[in-house]
Amino acid sequence: MPSVHAERNRRGRQRSREGDTMLKLYRFPGATCAAKVLMALAEKSVLFEDICLDRTELATDWYRRLNPAGVVPTVIHDGVVIVESSVILNYIEDRFLGSGTRLRPDEPLLRASMNHWLKLLDDMLPSLGTATYAIAARDRYLALPQAERDAYYDAIPDAYVRQSRRDAIELGLAAPEAARALENLVGLTARVEDSLRDRPFLCGDFSLADISLAPFISRIETLGILASAPERPLFDGWWARVRERPSFITGVEGSTPAPAVAALRAAGTRHAEEIAGLIRVPVAG
Amino acid sequence: MPSVHAERNRRGRQRSREGDTMLKLYRFPGATCAAKVLMALAEKSVLFEDICLDRTELATDWYRRLNPAGVVPTVIHDGVVIVESSVILNYIEDRFLGSGTRLRPDEPLLRASMNHWLKLLDDMLPSLGTATYAIAARDRYLALPQAERDAYYDAIPDAYVRQSRRDAIELGLAAPEAARALENLVGLTARVEDSLRDRPFLCGDFSLADISLAPFISRIETLGILASAPERPLFDGWWARVRERPSFITGVEGSTPAPAVAALRAAGTRHAEEIAGLIRVPVAG
Q1: DSSP string of A112-123?
Q2: Sheet harboring A80-83: ordered strands across?
Q3: Which of A171, B13, B84, B114 pairs as cysteine with B209 (C-beta 3.0–4.6 A)?
Q4: In this complex, is the C-beta atom of B198 within 8 Å of any C-beta atom belonging to chain A?
Q5: Domains with residue ranges and CATH for chain B
Protein backbone atom coordinates (compact mmCIF):
# COMPACT_ATOMS: atom_id res chain seq x y z
CA MET A 1 0.00 0.00 0.00
CA PRO A 2 1.57 3.26 -1.12
CA SER A 3 0.62 5.13 2.03
CA VAL A 4 3.46 7.65 1.89
CA HIS A 5 2.78 8.60 -1.67
CA ALA A 6 -0.92 8.62 -1.13
CA GLU A 7 -0.50 11.06 1.75
CA ARG A 8 1.73 13.27 -0.33
CA ASN A 9 -0.72 13.38 -3.19
CA ARG A 10 -3.88 13.61 -1.26
CA ARG A 11 -6.06 16.53 -2.25
CA GLY A 12 -8.82 15.20 0.01
CA ARG A 13 -12.01 16.60 -1.44
CA GLN A 14 -13.72 14.62 1.31
CA ARG A 15 -11.44 13.79 4.20
CA SER A 16 -11.77 10.33 5.63
CA ARG A 17 -13.83 9.95 8.77
CA GLU A 18 -13.94 6.18 8.49
CA GLY A 19 -10.21 5.49 8.18
CA ASP A 20 -9.38 2.64 5.83
CA THR A 21 -12.98 1.72 5.04
CA MET A 22 -13.42 4.89 2.97
CA LEU A 23 -13.14 4.29 -0.74
CA LYS A 24 -9.99 5.75 -2.31
CA LEU A 25 -9.94 6.84 -5.93
CA TYR A 26 -6.67 7.40 -7.82
CA ARG A 27 -7.11 9.51 -10.94
CA PHE A 28 -5.60 12.32 -12.87
CA PRO A 29 -7.34 15.46 -14.08
CA GLY A 30 -9.20 15.12 -17.36
CA ALA A 31 -8.90 11.32 -17.62
CA THR A 32 -11.97 9.93 -19.39
CA CYS A 33 -12.31 6.65 -17.50
CA ALA A 34 -11.75 8.24 -14.10
CA ALA A 35 -14.49 10.75 -14.94
CA LYS A 36 -16.94 7.84 -15.24
CA VAL A 37 -16.10 6.77 -11.69
CA LEU A 38 -16.42 10.34 -10.38
CA MET A 39 -19.87 10.56 -11.96
CA ALA A 40 -20.99 7.25 -10.43
CA LEU A 41 -19.74 8.21 -6.96
CA ALA A 42 -21.61 11.53 -7.23
CA GLU A 43 -24.84 9.79 -8.33
CA LYS A 44 -24.54 7.36 -5.39
CA SER A 45 -23.67 10.16 -2.91
CA VAL A 46 -20.59 8.19 -1.81
CA LEU A 47 -17.95 10.00 0.23
CA PHE A 48 -14.49 9.06 -1.00
CA GLU A 49 -10.86 10.02 -0.78
CA ASP A 50 -9.87 11.72 -4.01
CA ILE A 51 -6.20 11.15 -4.86
CA CYS A 52 -5.06 13.21 -7.82
CA LEU A 53 -1.88 11.98 -9.48
CA ASP A 54 0.16 13.74 -12.05
CA ARG A 55 1.08 11.89 -15.25
CA THR A 56 4.63 11.07 -14.15
CA GLU A 57 3.34 9.17 -11.13
CA LEU A 58 1.49 6.69 -13.36
CA ALA A 59 4.82 5.14 -14.35
CA THR A 60 6.21 4.80 -10.82
CA ASP A 61 6.79 1.40 -9.21
CA TRP A 62 4.39 2.07 -6.33
CA TYR A 63 1.54 2.94 -8.70
CA ARG A 64 2.31 0.03 -11.06
CA ARG A 65 1.95 -2.30 -8.11
CA LEU A 66 -1.63 -1.06 -7.77
CA ASN A 67 -2.33 -0.77 -11.49
CA PRO A 68 0.10 -2.78 -13.66
CA ALA A 69 -1.02 -1.02 -16.85
CA GLY A 70 -0.22 2.37 -15.29
CA VAL A 71 -3.60 3.86 -16.11
CA VAL A 72 -6.40 5.46 -14.09
CA PRO A 73 -8.78 4.92 -12.38
CA THR A 74 -7.71 2.69 -9.51
CA VAL A 75 -9.95 2.19 -6.49
CA ILE A 76 -8.97 0.78 -3.11
CA HIS A 77 -11.80 -0.25 -0.82
CA ASP A 78 -11.65 -2.41 2.30
CA GLY A 79 -7.98 -2.96 1.49
CA VAL A 80 -8.72 -4.44 -1.94
CA VAL A 81 -7.45 -2.89 -5.18
CA ILE A 82 -9.95 -2.67 -8.05
CA VAL A 83 -8.93 -1.62 -11.56
CA GLU A 84 -10.80 -1.23 -14.88
CA SER A 85 -13.49 1.45 -14.90
CA SER A 86 -16.29 -0.86 -16.04
CA VAL A 87 -15.51 -3.24 -13.15
CA ILE A 88 -15.35 -0.33 -10.71
CA LEU A 89 -18.70 1.09 -11.91
CA ASN A 90 -20.49 -2.20 -11.31
CA TYR A 91 -18.73 -2.54 -7.94
CA ILE A 92 -19.95 0.89 -6.84
CA GLU A 93 -23.51 -0.03 -7.77
CA ASP A 94 -23.28 -3.42 -5.99
CA ARG A 95 -21.68 -2.01 -2.87
CA PHE A 96 -23.81 1.14 -2.51
CA LEU A 97 -26.99 -0.32 -3.96
CA GLY A 98 -29.42 1.48 -1.66
CA SER A 99 -27.69 4.86 -1.78
CA GLY A 100 -28.50 7.65 -4.27
CA THR A 101 -29.56 6.90 -7.85
CA ARG A 102 -30.15 3.28 -8.96
CA LEU A 103 -27.63 2.90 -11.79
CA ARG A 104 -28.47 -0.53 -13.22
CA PRO A 105 -31.73 -1.90 -14.59
CA ASP A 106 -33.14 -5.08 -13.03
CA GLU A 107 -34.61 -6.54 -16.20
CA PRO A 108 -32.04 -9.00 -17.67
CA LEU A 109 -32.24 -7.81 -21.30
CA LEU A 110 -31.88 -4.15 -20.28
CA ARG A 111 -28.99 -5.11 -18.03
CA ALA A 112 -27.34 -6.94 -20.96
CA SER A 113 -27.81 -3.80 -23.04
CA MET A 114 -26.14 -1.76 -20.29
CA ASN A 115 -23.20 -4.18 -20.05
CA HIS A 116 -22.89 -4.06 -23.83
CA TRP A 117 -22.56 -0.26 -23.72
CA LEU A 118 -19.81 -0.58 -21.11
CA LYS A 119 -17.96 -3.14 -23.23
CA LEU A 120 -18.44 -1.16 -26.45
CA LEU A 121 -17.05 1.99 -24.87
CA ASP A 122 -14.08 0.13 -23.39
CA ASP A 123 -13.37 -1.21 -26.87
CA MET A 124 -13.65 2.27 -28.33
CA LEU A 125 -10.92 3.74 -26.12
CA PRO A 126 -8.28 3.22 -28.84
CA SER A 127 -10.41 5.31 -31.23
CA LEU A 128 -10.76 8.06 -28.62
CA GLY A 129 -7.01 7.89 -27.99
CA THR A 130 -6.19 8.10 -31.70
CA ALA A 131 -8.51 11.09 -32.15
CA THR A 132 -7.19 12.89 -29.06
CA TYR A 133 -3.54 12.36 -30.03
CA ALA A 134 -3.98 13.02 -33.75
CA ILE A 135 -5.86 16.28 -33.19
CA ALA A 136 -4.48 17.74 -29.97
CA ALA A 137 -2.19 15.77 -27.65
CA ARG A 138 0.46 15.37 -30.39
CA ASP A 139 1.41 19.05 -30.00
CA ARG A 140 2.81 18.32 -26.53
CA TYR A 141 5.01 15.50 -27.92
CA LEU A 142 6.04 17.23 -31.13
CA ALA A 143 7.52 19.98 -28.94
CA LEU A 144 9.97 17.40 -27.47
CA PRO A 145 13.29 16.52 -29.11
CA GLN A 146 12.98 13.42 -31.34
CA ALA A 147 15.13 11.33 -28.93
CA GLU A 148 12.70 11.98 -26.07
CA ARG A 149 9.77 11.17 -28.32
CA ASP A 150 11.41 7.91 -29.36
CA ALA A 151 12.01 7.03 -25.71
CA TYR A 152 8.29 7.60 -25.06
CA TYR A 153 7.34 5.31 -27.95
CA ASP A 154 9.85 2.65 -26.93
CA ALA A 155 8.26 2.43 -23.48
CA ILE A 156 4.94 1.23 -24.97
CA PRO A 157 5.14 -2.57 -24.65
CA ASP A 158 2.86 -3.76 -27.49
CA ALA A 159 4.39 -3.30 -30.97
CA TYR A 160 1.09 -2.45 -32.67
CA VAL A 161 -0.16 -0.08 -29.96
CA ARG A 162 3.29 1.57 -30.13
CA GLN A 163 3.03 2.01 -33.91
CA SER A 164 -0.51 3.35 -33.60
CA ARG A 165 0.56 5.97 -31.04
CA ARG A 166 3.63 6.89 -33.07
CA ASP A 167 1.51 7.36 -36.19
CA ALA A 168 -1.08 9.51 -34.38
CA ILE A 169 1.64 11.79 -33.01
CA GLU A 170 3.94 11.93 -36.03
CA LEU A 171 1.25 11.97 -38.75
CA GLY A 172 -1.72 13.55 -36.97
CA LEU A 173 -4.95 13.20 -38.91
CA ALA A 174 -3.02 11.59 -41.80
CA ALA A 175 -2.39 8.51 -39.56
CA PRO A 176 -3.75 5.26 -41.08
CA GLU A 177 -6.53 4.84 -38.51
CA ALA A 178 -7.47 8.50 -37.93
CA ALA A 179 -10.45 8.57 -40.30
CA ARG A 180 -11.85 5.28 -38.97
CA ALA A 181 -11.42 6.49 -35.39
CA LEU A 182 -13.43 9.66 -36.15
CA GLU A 183 -16.13 7.63 -37.89
CA ASN A 184 -16.35 5.20 -34.96
CA LEU A 185 -16.78 8.10 -32.55
CA VAL A 186 -19.38 9.87 -34.66
CA GLY A 187 -21.09 6.48 -35.08
CA LEU A 188 -21.80 6.51 -31.34
CA THR A 189 -24.35 9.28 -31.89
CA ALA A 190 -26.24 7.04 -34.35
CA ARG A 191 -26.27 4.22 -31.81
CA VAL A 192 -27.60 6.60 -29.17
CA GLU A 193 -30.31 7.81 -31.55
CA ASP A 194 -31.41 4.19 -32.16
CA SER A 195 -31.46 3.39 -28.45
CA LEU A 196 -33.59 6.38 -27.48
CA ARG A 197 -36.61 5.74 -29.68
CA ASP A 198 -38.83 4.95 -26.70
CA ARG A 199 -36.82 5.98 -23.65
CA PRO A 200 -35.08 9.01 -22.09
CA PHE A 201 -31.75 7.26 -21.41
CA LEU A 202 -29.80 4.45 -23.10
CA CYS A 203 -31.29 1.60 -21.07
CA GLY A 204 -34.53 3.19 -19.89
CA ASP A 205 -33.73 5.04 -16.68
CA PHE A 206 -30.37 6.76 -16.25
CA SER A 207 -27.69 4.07 -15.75
CA LEU A 208 -24.01 3.17 -15.87
CA ALA A 209 -24.36 3.13 -19.68
CA ASP A 210 -25.09 6.88 -19.76
CA ILE A 211 -22.26 7.47 -17.27
CA SER A 212 -19.80 5.56 -19.47
CA LEU A 213 -20.80 7.48 -22.55
CA ALA A 214 -20.86 10.99 -21.06
CA PRO A 215 -17.07 11.61 -20.86
CA PHE A 216 -16.66 10.23 -24.41
CA ILE A 217 -19.20 12.65 -25.82
CA SER A 218 -17.75 15.49 -23.79
CA ARG A 219 -14.31 14.78 -25.29
CA ILE A 220 -15.50 14.54 -28.90
CA GLU A 221 -17.53 17.71 -28.43
CA THR A 222 -14.44 19.53 -27.11
CA LEU A 223 -12.30 18.21 -29.99
CA GLY A 224 -14.80 19.54 -32.54
CA ILE A 225 -15.72 16.05 -33.81
CA LEU A 226 -19.33 16.17 -32.66
CA ALA A 227 -19.91 19.25 -34.83
CA SER A 228 -19.42 17.01 -37.90
CA ALA A 229 -22.04 14.46 -36.82
CA PRO A 230 -25.36 14.47 -38.70
CA GLU A 231 -28.32 16.02 -36.93
CA ARG A 232 -29.73 13.64 -34.31
CA PRO A 233 -32.59 15.14 -32.30
CA LEU A 234 -32.93 12.29 -29.79
CA PHE A 235 -29.19 12.32 -29.17
CA ASP A 236 -29.30 16.09 -28.63
CA GLY A 237 -32.06 15.69 -26.04
CA TRP A 238 -30.07 12.98 -24.24
CA TRP A 239 -26.92 15.09 -24.22
CA ALA A 240 -28.81 18.08 -22.79
CA ARG A 241 -30.33 15.86 -20.05
CA VAL A 242 -26.93 14.37 -19.16
CA ARG A 243 -25.13 17.71 -19.10
CA GLU A 244 -27.50 19.23 -16.60
CA ARG A 245 -26.97 16.45 -14.02
CA PRO A 246 -24.92 17.57 -11.02
CA SER A 247 -22.83 14.39 -11.37
CA PHE A 248 -21.77 15.45 -14.88
CA ILE A 249 -20.98 18.98 -13.74
CA THR A 250 -18.74 17.82 -10.89
CA GLY A 251 -17.50 14.50 -12.34
CA VAL A 252 -16.77 15.40 -15.95
CA GLU A 253 -16.65 19.18 -16.32
CA GLY A 254 -15.24 19.73 -12.85
CA SER A 255 -12.53 17.08 -13.19
CA THR A 256 -10.91 18.57 -16.30
CA PRO A 257 -8.69 21.65 -15.80
CA ALA A 258 -9.86 24.65 -17.85
CA PRO A 259 -6.47 25.13 -19.64
CA ALA A 260 -6.57 21.49 -20.82
CA VAL A 261 -10.10 21.94 -22.17
CA ALA A 262 -9.06 25.16 -23.89
CA ALA A 263 -6.08 23.42 -25.56
CA LEU A 264 -8.27 20.55 -26.83
CA ARG A 265 -10.86 22.99 -28.10
CA ALA A 266 -8.31 25.21 -29.84
CA ALA A 267 -6.74 22.20 -31.58
CA GLY A 268 -10.19 21.04 -32.69
CA THR A 269 -10.97 24.46 -34.12
CA ARG A 270 -7.62 24.56 -35.93
CA HIS A 271 -8.33 21.16 -37.56
CA ALA A 272 -12.09 21.62 -38.04
CA GLU A 273 -12.02 21.47 -41.82
CA GLU A 274 -9.76 18.41 -41.90
CA ILE A 275 -11.97 16.63 -39.32
CA ALA A 276 -15.13 17.34 -41.32
CA GLY A 277 -13.43 16.09 -44.46
CA LEU A 278 -12.46 12.77 -42.86
CA ILE A 279 -15.93 11.95 -41.57
CA ARG A 280 -17.87 10.42 -44.39
CA VAL A 281 -21.45 11.14 -43.50
CA PRO A 282 -23.81 8.70 -45.20
CA VAL A 283 -26.16 10.47 -47.58
CA ALA A 284 -29.74 10.36 -46.32
CA GLY A 285 -32.33 8.96 -48.59
CA MET B 1 -34.10 -12.23 -38.62
CA PRO B 2 -32.23 -14.75 -40.75
CA SER B 3 -34.90 -17.41 -40.45
CA VAL B 4 -34.10 -19.17 -43.71
CA HIS B 5 -30.40 -19.43 -42.99
CA ALA B 6 -31.02 -20.38 -39.41
CA GLU B 7 -33.26 -23.20 -40.54
CA ARG B 8 -30.72 -24.38 -43.03
CA ASN B 9 -27.92 -24.41 -40.49
CA ARG B 10 -29.79 -25.75 -37.57
CA ARG B 11 -28.20 -28.80 -36.02
CA GLY B 12 -30.77 -28.65 -33.20
CA ARG B 13 -29.13 -30.42 -30.28
CA GLN B 14 -32.29 -29.52 -28.42
CA ARG B 15 -35.22 -28.78 -30.68
CA SER B 16 -37.39 -25.85 -29.71
CA ARG B 17 -40.62 -26.64 -27.90
CA GLU B 18 -41.18 -23.03 -26.93
CA GLY B 19 -40.92 -21.43 -30.36
CA ASP B 20 -39.26 -18.03 -30.34
CA THR B 21 -38.80 -17.86 -26.58
CA MET B 22 -36.07 -20.51 -26.69
CA LEU B 23 -32.58 -19.06 -26.57
CA LYS B 24 -30.69 -19.40 -29.85
CA LEU B 25 -26.90 -19.65 -29.88
CA TYR B 26 -24.89 -19.03 -33.05
CA ARG B 27 -21.38 -20.45 -32.87
CA PHE B 28 -18.84 -22.36 -34.82
CA PRO B 29 -16.98 -25.47 -33.73
CA GLY B 30 -13.90 -24.86 -31.60
CA ALA B 31 -14.51 -21.13 -31.07
CA THR B 32 -13.15 -20.13 -27.64
CA CYS B 33 -15.75 -17.50 -26.73
CA ALA B 34 -18.67 -19.63 -27.87
CA ALA B 35 -17.34 -22.45 -25.68
CA LYS B 36 -17.76 -20.16 -22.64
CA VAL B 37 -21.44 -19.74 -23.48
CA LEU B 38 -21.91 -23.48 -24.05
CA MET B 39 -20.39 -24.13 -20.62
CA ALA B 40 -22.63 -21.58 -18.92
CA LEU B 41 -25.77 -22.96 -20.58
CA ALA B 42 -24.79 -26.47 -19.45
CA GLU B 43 -24.17 -25.32 -15.86
CA LYS B 44 -27.57 -23.58 -15.81
CA SER B 45 -29.34 -26.57 -17.46
CA VAL B 46 -30.80 -24.26 -20.09
CA LEU B 47 -32.33 -25.81 -23.20
CA PHE B 48 -31.28 -23.87 -26.29
CA GLU B 49 -31.22 -24.00 -30.03
CA ASP B 50 -27.68 -24.69 -31.15
CA ILE B 51 -26.90 -23.12 -34.55
CA CYS B 52 -23.54 -24.18 -35.90
CA LEU B 53 -22.15 -21.93 -38.62
CA ASP B 54 -19.19 -22.57 -40.82
CA ARG B 55 -16.48 -19.93 -41.08
CA THR B 56 -17.68 -18.58 -44.44
CA GLU B 57 -21.08 -17.72 -42.97
CA LEU B 58 -19.52 -15.28 -40.48
CA ALA B 59 -18.83 -12.85 -43.32
CA THR B 60 -22.33 -12.99 -44.83
CA ASP B 61 -24.64 -10.00 -44.78
CA TRP B 62 -27.33 -11.78 -42.78
CA TYR B 63 -24.88 -12.74 -40.03
CA ARG B 64 -23.24 -9.29 -39.99
CA ARG B 65 -26.66 -7.81 -39.36
CA LEU B 66 -26.76 -9.87 -36.15
CA ASN B 67 -23.09 -9.49 -35.27
CA PRO B 68 -21.40 -6.57 -37.05
CA ALA B 69 -17.90 -7.80 -36.12
CA GLY B 70 -18.63 -11.17 -37.74
CA VAL B 71 -17.57 -13.18 -34.70
CA VAL B 72 -19.23 -15.76 -32.47
CA PRO B 73 -21.05 -16.16 -30.15
CA THR B 74 -24.32 -14.42 -30.91
CA VAL B 75 -27.42 -15.10 -28.83
CA ILE B 76 -31.01 -14.29 -29.71
CA HIS B 77 -33.52 -14.44 -26.88
CA ASP B 78 -37.04 -13.03 -26.77
CA GLY B 79 -36.34 -11.51 -30.17
CA VAL B 80 -33.34 -9.52 -28.89
CA VAL B 81 -29.81 -10.00 -30.25
CA ILE B 82 -27.01 -10.16 -27.65
CA VAL B 83 -23.33 -10.17 -28.65
CA GLU B 84 -20.05 -10.24 -26.68
CA SER B 85 -19.48 -13.40 -24.64
CA SER B 86 -18.94 -11.59 -21.32
CA VAL B 87 -22.28 -9.78 -21.77
CA ILE B 88 -23.99 -13.05 -22.73
CA LEU B 89 -22.56 -14.89 -19.69
CA ASN B 90 -23.92 -12.30 -17.27
CA TYR B 91 -27.24 -12.31 -19.13
CA ILE B 92 -27.56 -16.08 -18.78
CA GLU B 93 -26.94 -15.82 -15.02
CA ASP B 94 -29.42 -12.93 -14.66
CA ARG B 95 -32.10 -14.59 -16.73
CA PHE B 96 -31.78 -18.16 -15.39
CA LEU B 97 -30.75 -17.17 -11.87
CA GLY B 98 -32.62 -19.92 -10.04
CA SER B 99 -31.71 -22.72 -12.45
CA GLY B 100 -28.67 -25.01 -12.11
CA THR B 101 -25.38 -23.75 -10.66
CA ARG B 102 -25.14 -20.21 -9.22
CA LEU B 103 -22.43 -18.67 -11.40
CA ARG B 104 -21.85 -15.29 -9.75
CA PRO B 105 -20.87 -14.44 -6.16
CA ASP B 106 -23.14 -12.08 -4.20
CA GLU B 107 -20.41 -10.34 -2.24
CA PRO B 108 -19.50 -7.10 -4.09
CA LEU B 109 -15.68 -7.48 -3.92
CA LEU B 110 -15.84 -11.09 -5.14
CA ARG B 111 -18.20 -10.02 -7.89
CA ALA B 112 -15.73 -7.27 -8.90
CA SER B 113 -13.00 -9.91 -8.98
CA MET B 114 -15.19 -12.06 -11.25
CA ASN B 115 -15.92 -9.15 -13.58
CA HIS B 116 -12.21 -8.36 -13.67
CA TRP B 117 -11.44 -11.91 -14.82
CA LEU B 118 -14.01 -11.55 -17.61
CA LYS B 119 -12.49 -8.23 -18.70
CA LEU B 120 -8.92 -9.53 -18.45
CA LEU B 121 -9.72 -12.56 -20.59
CA ASP B 122 -11.53 -10.42 -23.18
CA ASP B 123 -8.42 -8.24 -23.35
CA MET B 124 -6.21 -11.29 -23.74
CA LEU B 125 -7.99 -12.55 -26.87
CA PRO B 126 -5.41 -10.87 -29.14
CA SER B 127 -2.65 -12.83 -27.36
CA LEU B 128 -4.58 -16.08 -27.80
CA GLY B 129 -5.16 -15.20 -31.45
CA THR B 130 -1.48 -14.41 -32.04
CA ALA B 131 -0.40 -17.68 -30.41
CA THR B 132 -2.99 -19.76 -32.30
CA TYR B 133 -2.10 -18.22 -35.67
CA ALA B 134 1.67 -18.14 -35.13
CA ILE B 135 1.83 -21.79 -34.05
CA ALA B 136 -0.94 -23.55 -35.93
CA ALA B 137 -3.61 -21.66 -37.89
CA ARG B 138 -0.98 -20.09 -40.19
CA ASP B 139 -0.53 -23.45 -41.95
CA ARG B 140 -4.03 -23.19 -43.38
CA TYR B 141 -3.28 -19.72 -44.81
CA LEU B 142 0.25 -20.42 -45.98
CA ALA B 143 -1.22 -23.17 -48.17
CA LEU B 144 -3.18 -20.49 -50.10
CA PRO B 145 -1.74 -18.54 -53.05
CA GLN B 146 -0.30 -15.18 -51.91
CA ALA B 147 -3.07 -13.25 -53.70
CA GLU B 148 -5.75 -15.04 -51.67
CA ARG B 149 -3.79 -14.43 -48.48
CA ASP B 150 -3.50 -10.73 -49.30
CA ALA B 151 -7.23 -10.56 -49.93
CA TYR B 152 -7.79 -12.09 -46.49
CA TYR B 153 -5.51 -9.50 -44.85
CA ASP B 154 -7.09 -6.63 -46.79
CA ALA B 155 -10.51 -7.54 -45.43
CA ILE B 156 -9.40 -6.83 -41.85
CA PRO B 157 -10.57 -3.25 -41.23
CA ASP B 158 -8.10 -2.01 -38.55
CA ALA B 159 -4.61 -1.34 -39.90
CA TYR B 160 -2.79 -2.53 -36.76
CA VAL B 161 -4.93 -5.64 -36.25
CA ARG B 162 -4.33 -6.40 -39.94
CA GLN B 163 -0.56 -6.05 -39.53
CA SER B 164 -0.60 -8.19 -36.40
CA ARG B 165 -2.48 -10.99 -38.19
CA ARG B 166 -0.25 -10.72 -41.24
CA ASP B 167 2.87 -10.98 -39.07
CA ALA B 168 1.55 -14.00 -37.14
CA ILE B 169 0.77 -15.85 -40.38
CA GLU B 170 3.80 -14.81 -42.45
CA LEU B 171 6.40 -14.88 -39.65
CA GLY B 172 4.97 -17.43 -37.23
CA LEU B 173 6.72 -17.41 -33.87
CA ALA B 174 9.20 -14.82 -35.20
CA ALA B 175 6.35 -12.24 -35.30
CA PRO B 176 7.04 -9.14 -33.16
CA GLU B 177 4.41 -9.91 -30.53
CA ALA B 178 4.65 -13.73 -30.46
CA ALA B 179 6.92 -13.96 -27.41
CA ARG B 180 4.85 -11.45 -25.42
CA ALA B 181 1.65 -13.28 -26.36
CA LEU B 182 3.06 -16.57 -25.03
CA GLU B 183 4.26 -14.89 -21.84
CA ASN B 184 0.85 -13.26 -21.30
CA LEU B 185 -0.84 -16.64 -21.69
CA VAL B 186 1.57 -18.46 -19.39
CA GLY B 187 1.19 -15.55 -16.96
CA LEU B 188 -2.47 -16.53 -16.54
CA THR B 189 -1.37 -19.62 -14.60
CA ALA B 190 0.51 -17.40 -12.11
CA ARG B 191 -2.60 -15.28 -11.63
CA VAL B 192 -4.67 -18.40 -11.04
CA GLU B 193 -2.11 -19.66 -8.50
CA ASP B 194 -2.37 -16.33 -6.61
CA SER B 195 -6.17 -16.39 -6.65
CA LEU B 196 -6.48 -19.93 -5.28
CA ARG B 197 -4.54 -19.53 -2.03
CA ASP B 198 -7.65 -19.93 0.08
CA ARG B 199 -10.33 -21.14 -2.29
CA PRO B 200 -11.15 -23.93 -4.78
CA PHE B 201 -12.15 -21.65 -7.67
CA LEU B 202 -11.10 -18.19 -8.85
CA CYS B 203 -13.75 -16.25 -6.92
CA GLY B 204 -14.61 -18.77 -4.19
CA ASP B 205 -17.29 -21.02 -5.61
CA PHE B 206 -17.25 -21.98 -9.28
CA SER B 207 -18.30 -18.93 -11.31
CA LEU B 208 -18.32 -17.21 -14.70
CA ALA B 209 -14.63 -16.43 -14.08
CA ASP B 210 -13.72 -20.13 -14.20
CA ILE B 211 -15.96 -20.58 -17.24
CA SER B 212 -14.20 -17.74 -19.07
CA LEU B 213 -10.78 -19.12 -18.30
CA ALA B 214 -11.43 -22.79 -19.12
CA PRO B 215 -11.43 -22.57 -22.95
CA PHE B 216 -8.27 -20.39 -22.79
CA ILE B 217 -6.40 -22.96 -20.76
CA SER B 218 -7.72 -25.76 -22.94
CA ARG B 219 -6.35 -23.99 -26.02
CA ILE B 220 -2.91 -23.25 -24.58
CA GLU B 221 -2.70 -26.82 -23.33
CA THR B 222 -3.51 -28.14 -26.82
CA LEU B 223 -0.96 -25.79 -28.42
CA GLY B 224 1.77 -27.06 -26.10
CA ILE B 225 2.21 -23.68 -24.37
CA LEU B 226 1.06 -24.87 -20.95
CA ALA B 227 3.86 -27.45 -20.90
CA SER B 228 6.35 -24.55 -20.68
CA ALA B 229 4.67 -22.95 -17.66
CA PRO B 230 6.45 -23.30 -14.30
CA GLU B 231 5.01 -25.84 -11.87
CA ARG B 232 1.91 -24.47 -10.14
CA PRO B 233 0.23 -26.97 -7.82
CA LEU B 234 -2.88 -24.88 -7.06
CA PHE B 235 -3.38 -24.20 -10.75
CA ASP B 236 -3.07 -27.93 -11.50
CA GLY B 237 -5.73 -28.71 -8.89
CA TRP B 238 -8.06 -26.07 -10.37
CA TRP B 239 -7.54 -27.37 -13.89
CA ALA B 240 -8.29 -30.95 -12.79
CA ARG B 241 -11.51 -29.79 -11.03
CA VAL B 242 -12.64 -27.79 -14.07
CA ARG B 243 -11.91 -30.58 -16.55
CA GLU B 244 -14.06 -33.09 -14.75
CA ARG B 245 -17.17 -30.88 -14.83
CA PRO B 246 -19.78 -32.14 -17.29
CA SER B 247 -20.13 -28.56 -18.61
CA PHE B 248 -16.47 -28.60 -19.64
CA ILE B 249 -16.76 -31.99 -21.25
CA THR B 250 -19.76 -30.99 -23.37
CA GLY B 251 -19.07 -27.25 -23.75
CA VAL B 252 -15.33 -27.15 -24.42
CA GLU B 253 -14.13 -30.62 -25.32
CA GLY B 254 -17.35 -31.58 -27.07
CA SER B 255 -17.56 -28.37 -29.11
CA THR B 256 -14.19 -28.76 -30.80
CA PRO B 257 -13.93 -31.27 -33.66
CA ALA B 258 -11.28 -33.93 -33.05
CA PRO B 259 -9.38 -33.24 -36.31
CA ALA B 260 -9.05 -29.55 -35.34
CA VAL B 261 -7.69 -30.51 -31.91
CA ALA B 262 -5.28 -32.95 -33.52
CA ALA B 263 -4.00 -30.27 -35.92
CA LEU B 264 -3.43 -27.75 -33.08
CA ARG B 265 -1.70 -30.40 -30.98
CA ALA B 266 0.55 -31.55 -33.86
CA ALA B 267 1.58 -27.94 -34.59
CA GLY B 268 2.34 -27.39 -30.90
CA THR B 269 4.50 -30.52 -30.81
CA ARG B 270 6.33 -29.46 -33.95
CA HIS B 271 7.15 -26.04 -32.42
CA ALA B 272 7.65 -27.22 -28.83
CA GLU B 273 11.30 -26.25 -28.60
CA GLU B 274 10.72 -22.82 -30.12
CA ILE B 275 7.79 -22.19 -27.76
CA ALA B 276 9.82 -23.14 -24.71
CA GLY B 277 12.63 -20.88 -25.87
CA LEU B 278 10.34 -17.86 -26.20
CA ILE B 279 8.83 -18.15 -22.72
CA ARG B 280 11.22 -16.54 -20.30
CA VAL B 281 10.45 -18.21 -17.03
CA PRO B 282 11.49 -16.03 -14.10
CA VAL B 283 14.19 -17.73 -12.03
CA ALA B 284 12.86 -18.71 -8.63
CA GLY B 285 14.43 -17.31 -5.46
Answers
A1: HHHHHHHHHHHH
A2: A48-52, A23-27, A74-77, A80-83
A3: B114
A4: no
A5: 3-95 (3.40.30.10), 108-278 (1.20.1050.10)
Which helix (H) or strand (E) segment is B77 a member of? strand B74-77
Cβ <8 Å between A91 and B77: no
Q: Minimal Cα distance from A157: which residue of B?
A: B180
Tell me how many degrees the CA angle B126-B130-B135 measures, rounded to the nearest 5. 155
The confidence score (pLDDT) of residue A21 equals: 84
CA distance B92 to A90: 17
Q: Write the ipTM.
A: 0.91
Minimum CA–CA partner of B78 in chain A: A109
Q: What is the mean pLDDT of residues B31-41?
A: 97
List pLDDT tens digits, range A112-166: 999 999 999 999 999 999 999 999 999 999 999 999 999 999 999 999 999 999 9
Q: How many CB atoms lie within 10 A of CB B154?
A: 10
Distance CA A221, CA A214 (A): 11
> Mind listing the pLDDT tens digit for each residue in B215-236?
999 999 999 999 999 999 999 9
Test mutation, A33, A78, A84, chain B, max B CBs within 10 A: A84
* Mean pLDDT over the full length of chain B: 91
Roughly how many angstroms between the first and final C-alpha of chain A, as a whole number? Answer: 59
What is the Cα–Cα distance from B20 to A46, expressed in whole angstroms?
43
